[in-house]
Amino acid sequence: MESIEHINYIKAPISKVYNTLISEDGLGNIWTKKLQVKPEIGFVNEFDFDEGYITKFKILVLVENSKIVWECIESDEEWVGTKVSFELTEKDNKTKVTLKHFNWSERTDFYRWCNYNWAMFLFRMKNYCES
């Protein structure tokens, strides 16, 4: 199994970073405006990237200011069954975000493209949370 992993450091309180990752306002500003998000275990978040299908992630773990885990239940076929986790820690007024997109069946061109896009996601989140 393949895994995409990134770390970024954000000069913002951990609560702001966490709330960005669980709210329509936050995710709408860093990922897509077309979404339905609710911070509740078992809820299925929906994201529309204008690709002809809706990407759906079931929320498996929500630990306030610490950890979020989603499981992809509908999307591009390479994403279905994968999981995305966000682990947060705070030190010296910086929040460390460890993003993992794991359980990929193989390393494909789509995997490589998504790897780039997750880095851009973290870059946009850093800009959003620090402004």
Automatic annotation (TrEMBL):
Listed transmembrane segments: none
Superkingdom assignment: Bacteria
InterPro entries (alphabetical): ASHA1/2-like_C, START-like_dom_sf
Segments forming a coiled coil: none
Record-annotated Activator of Hsp90 ATPase homologue 1/2-like C-terminal domain positions: 11-129
Family recorded in the similarity comment: Belongs to the AHA1 family.
Protein name: Activator of Hsp90 ATPase homolog 1-like protein
